[in-house]
Specification:
Glucose Permease (Domain IIA), seven-stranded antiparallel sheet, 4 helices, 15% helix
Amino acid sequence: MKRLLALTALALALTFLANQEAAAQKGRMPGEAQEGEADLTQRGLFATGLSPAFPEDIDCPGVSSPFGSPTRYDGSPRKNDFGGLHNGMDITLDTGTPLLAVADGEVAHAGTAGRLVGNFIWIRFAPEATGLPAYVFAKYQHLNEPSPLRPGDRISQGQTVGLAGNTGTTGGHYGLGGYTHLHINLLTSSGPDFTTTGPILRPQTISYLDPMGLYGPKLADNRLLFSLPESQKRLPVSVMTVDGKRVANGSKSIWPVACQAK
């Protein structure tokens, strides 16, 4: 009987550890799969209705699947641990497209995870870098290859932090070819400190922020962004062109991909 109980306890422990590892491989926080929709909503995971307005005569890769969307870029429904909602923003790109730092910041974490994540890099932006009243942690994922940058490296706005790829997307819904794109998701926190477990980064306090929130009024709160009048939800976005020229358009942060003059 004691042997049976010991084996049962061991099996339960191994199952728990496997679930934790699976959570880490998917890039979510351990236990997050058990969060109810109310918890996710409380942390800011819902569509805000924001969209980008790029400078005139500038052509930029647009948003293929916005934050909080229940569908992928191809219109298929999402099935995930976030209530079926998108916890970031997708931009469809060619393999090898440079991904840019939206502001001056510091590499917080980088590495490689499993399906749904692939190669990733986390960057921390201080309030003075973005103009927002919070620290912002941005995760760029599905990089074509691991970023050469390492935790502690200082980066400048417009600096390449990685190259677009399809890592973490092959198999499953996208098939063997995967889907080359940038998935960028933002967490905000009241302070600069954080811990990491696998690909997971956990700030002192955690709230989701629609990546479009980088370009609007100085509001680091999706509830306030959601409440903006519809006439104010198309946000002017500053950009960097492929030749390295910054084109100001009202926002302190720039688009995470270089744009072309028309």
